[in-house]
Specification:
Structural class of chain B: mainly alpha
Structural class of chain A: mainly alpha
Helix content of chain B: over 70%
Number of strands of chain B: 0
Largest interface: A-B, 52 and 40 residues
Order of helices and strands of chain A: HHHHHH
Number of helices of chain B: 5
Largest sheet of chain B: none
Radius of gyration of chain A: 26 Å
Shape of chain A: extended
Strand content of chain A: under 5%
Shape of chain B: rod-shaped
Distance between the termini of chain B: 93 Å
Distance between the termini of chain A: 62 Å
Number of strands of chain A: 0
Strand content of chain B: under 5%
Radius of gyration of chain B: 37 Å
Order of helices and strands of chain B: HHHHH
Oligomer: heterodimer
């Protein structure tokens, strides 16, 4: 290889390594700084620019909601176990299994309603504009995730039916 | 070659050279080519260097190398920090959503 070409290749490699090293360092430092805060509500303060007073209100609502949420999760988990038992070894869906499915769906919808109610309460503890943004973001992240899955499934099903 | 033994008027040498050339005709434009080669050999080496050499010489200049290194470190750090901030934000968001909606993804 010619000497100038070798010099250029080495220079390019050194430049690439320098950039990559700085990138990794910058990313790690930034991630480490952010990871120091283990507060679940840290995102709310940062994203919606909340003051200390607003954060205190939101925190009180959050702390009040968590036991209710945990209780609902426990009920859903118990109902899932009952459903698993009803489905175990069955080749058909028995009336009991159907009943368990319905009960599970009811519990889930109650859980979602309770969650939405909490989101609305939290949004009221924020400045109006931020509250609207929070509510829309939380609906997108929770209820919207289900809708997206359902939409994907219905599109897929329609595609398959179309093929037939 | 020993200078003392070299004599351009040496009759034996001339005869030998004549004999060696007999039967071999010179290629066309031989004289022009010879002159061109002589001229090329007189051009300074720096002028004949291609763009690759010039680029390599430029890259080896300490000022250029230092400035490039600083720019690369700054650009890399900024890009990394930006990416890190975005990743940390996404992580914090997931943590909050998981705390208030553990069943949101059908778990």
């Amino acid at each position: 290889m010619k000497r100038p070409l070798l010099i250029l290749v080495i220079a390019l490699l050194a430049g690439g390594a320098l950039f990559a090293g700085s990138y990794v360092m910058g990313r790690r430092v930034c991630e480490a700084c952010s990871a120091r805060t283990t507060d679940d509500l840290g995102w709310l303060r940062q994203e919606f620019h909340l003051s200390d007073a607003e954060m205190a209100r939101v925190r009180a609502l959050h702390d009040g909601y968590l036991p209710k949420c945990a209780d609902m999760c426990g009920q859903i988990a118990a109902k899932k176990q009952e459903l698993d038992v009803a489905l175990a070894g069955a080749t058909n869906i028995s009336p009991v299994a159907k009943q368990k499915l319905t009960e599970l769906a009811v519990l889930r919808s109650q859980c979602q309603a309770q969650m939405l109610e909490h989101f609305i309460q939290v949004s009221h503890a924020m400045p109006p504009e931020q509250g609207r943004r929070y509510l829309s973001e939380m609906e997108r992240l929770t209820i919207g995730a289900h809708e997206q899955t359902e939409q994907t499934m219905s599109t897929h099903a329609g595609h398959v039916h179309g093929e037939h | 070659m020993n200078q003392e033994n070299f004599n351009p008027n040496d009759a034996k040498l001339s005869a030998l050279l004549h004999r060696s050339r007999s039967g071999h005709s010179l290629p066309p434009r031989f004289q022009e080519d010879v002159w061109r080669r002589i001229e090329e050999s007189e051009i300074p080496v720096a002028v004949r260097r291609g763009w690759l050499d010039a680029l390599a010489a430029w890259a080896l200049r300490p000022r250029f190398a230092l400035a490039t290194a600083i720019v690369l470190v700054l650009a890399g750090s900024l890009a990394g920090a930006r990416q890190g901030r975005q990743a940390a934000r996404a992580d914090a968001q997931s943590r909050y959503v998981a705390s208030v909606a553990p069943n949101s993804l059908g778990k």
